[in-house]
Design brief:
The chain is mainly α. The protein has helices at 3-8, 19-34, 45-52, 56-72, 74-84, 86-104, 110-139, 144-186, 188-195, 212-226, 234-252, 255-260, 262-278, 280-291, 296-321, 330-350, 354-382, 388-417, 421-453. It starts with a helix and ends in a 37-residue tail after the last helix.
């Protein structure tokens, strides 16, 4: 049995015990190594500028490419997991991220850094992180929610420890040797992947029914054989390829849901717009503090403070949002967290003293915890679970585009004005406008749905406030949610 078959097909035996907890421990470490890593790049921002004589815009392309590939590589990672299994994907990701960082230590220009530490490392982090999240779904059934909550703590731990380690190694060895060491550290993702052995299939699993494209291919092949044709008919081959292509797009990029589901369309547009300003404080906070006279070690500590508070606030936010009071109102909690995130940026504009920046980091971390805990819960509310995987694919690709261009465009604005305050003005604009757009749009959508359903519902059974749309395709009772769901987190 191939690893891909074990991880990608059939029904896995629920374990929730024994080796599953070792896999959970490996996933905690994996999330700290992968998703917790990119925020520490801000520590090297000033040194990279001096080394390559680069502008703020040119330097910010490096972390932007890394984060964009980390979030946007979900569909590719899903295909890799289906074909080869989670263990292979995690270990390949660890190898790519390690090779990327080791190669970046020998870069002679900022453009080479885009390819090595940006694209190659980002792709490796994507494979390791998303395959590691996926494997928890096979090892945990009863305790799956608890397992995911514990695993997400690895992100906050990485967010806390990476900046401190980065600043220490930078002071002692310089950025090139630090990147070389980081390459070795990221290779530990391969060790985590080795622990994630394939889960055994349940006995007696029913064989999968052929896909429509496969049926069409078999029909075409049978017609050709009956006619004595030695090669496939060109028209049938072209039609079969079109159907397969359409099915792949529908499976991994849910354009049909985007066109027909208003809630999903509003949420996707709002989050995509929000991401233009979401990552800016993480990239520019350290250089902003250093420019205003804060010691480099204390400036790196600011990022660690954000991560440390996340360790405690994110689980509390998840528990709060799971309460029955907020079951149908999570979108408003999410919009409130985004609004608080945007408003907190004005604290940096008022003053750049270290004590004020600590207050800013505390408020920012609280808002950031709310965004991270609710981002995908709200998406599950507006999309049917049997289409969640494909809806997530389009969602992550669109947000990765704005993550890619947001920081460089803001860096260009800073280069023109020579004022770092525009970083926080820009971030606040995108975040506040996105929060208002999503909150008001879902409020209007909810009122419209209530007015539409009011005449049809008896007075003793009023309709519940819902903002999820009717699914684009009827769901069969026997159809189960997709086995492989790739999830990113903030």
């Amino acid at each position: 049995m191939s690893p891909g078959g074990a991880a990608g097909h059939g029904a896995a035996k629920p374990q929730d015990q024994g080796w599953a907890w070792m896999v959970l421990l490996a996933t905690v470490l994996l999330q700290g190594l992968t998703l917790g890593y990119p925020p520490c790049i801000g520590v090297f921002f000033t040194d990279l500028q001096r080394e390559f004589q680069a502008s703020n815009s040119e330097t910010s392309w490096f972390p932007s490419i890394m984060v964009a590939v980390l979030h946007g590589g979900g569909p590719l990672c899903s295909i890799l997991v289906k074909r080869f299994g989670c263990r292979f994907a995690v270990m390949l990701g660890g190898l790519l991220s390690g090779v990327g960082m080791v190669s970046s230590s020998f870069c002679g220009s900022i453009d080479q850094l885009y390819l090595t530490a940006g694209f190659i490392t980002g792709l490796g982090l994507c494979f390791s992180f998303q395959a590691g999240v996926t494997v928890l779904g096979y090892y945990f059934v009863r305790w799956r929610t608890l397992a995911n909550a514990i695993a997400s703590m690895g992100v906050s731990l990485g967010f806390t420890l990476w900046p401190l380690l980065s600043q220490y190694l930078l002071d002692e060895m310089g950025w090139r040797n630090t990147f070389l060491i980081f390459g070795g550290i990221l290779l530990n993702c391969c060790v985590c992947g080795a622990i994630m052995r394939p889960v055994q299939l349940a006995s007696g699993a029913p064989p999968q029914s052929p896909k429509p494209a496969e049926e069409l291919g078999k029909t075409a092949e049978g017609a050709q054989l009956s006619n004595g044709a030695s090669s496939p008919h060109p028209e049938l081959r072209q039609q079969s390829r079109r159907i397969v292509c359409f099915q792949m797009l529908q499976k991994y990029l849910a354009f049909d849901i985007f066109c027909q589901n208003k809630g999903y369309r509003i949420y996707t547009v709002g989050v995509t717009w929000m991401m233009m300003g979401f990552a800016l404080p993480h990239i520019y906070l350290v250089p902003y503090a250093i420019q205003n006279g804060v010691e480099e070690r204390r400036a790196a500590l600011l990022i660690s403070i954000i991560g440390f508070i996340n360790i405690f606030i994110r689980p509390l936010t998840g528990l709060l949002s799971g309460h029955s009071i907020f079951t149908r109102r999570r979108i408003y909690l999410f919009s409130l967290a985004v609004l608080l995130y945007g408003l907190s940026n004005f604290i940096c504009v008022i003053s750049a003293e270290f004590s004020v920046l600590i207050i800013y980091c505390i408020i920012l971390s609280i808002a950031m915890s709310g965004v991270g805990a609710l981002l995908f819960q709200v998406l599950m509310d507006v999309v049917e679970m049997d289409r969640f995987s494909s809806a997530l694919g389009l969602f992550t690709i669109l947000e990765s585009i704005t993550l890619l261009i947001g920081a460089p465009l803001t860096g260009l604005l800073v280069d023109i004005t020579s004022d770092f305050h525009y970083v926080f003005y820009t971030s606040s604009f995108f975040l506040i406008s996105a929060a208002l757009f999503m909150g008001l749009s879902f409020c209007a959508l909810q009122k419209k749905a209530k007015l539409k359903d009011a005449p049809k519902v008896p007075l003793d059974n009023p309709s519940k406030c819902q903002y999820n749309e009717i699914p684009t395709e009827p769901r069969a009772e026997s159809q189960s949610p997709p086995a492989v769901v790739y999830i990113t987190s903030i």
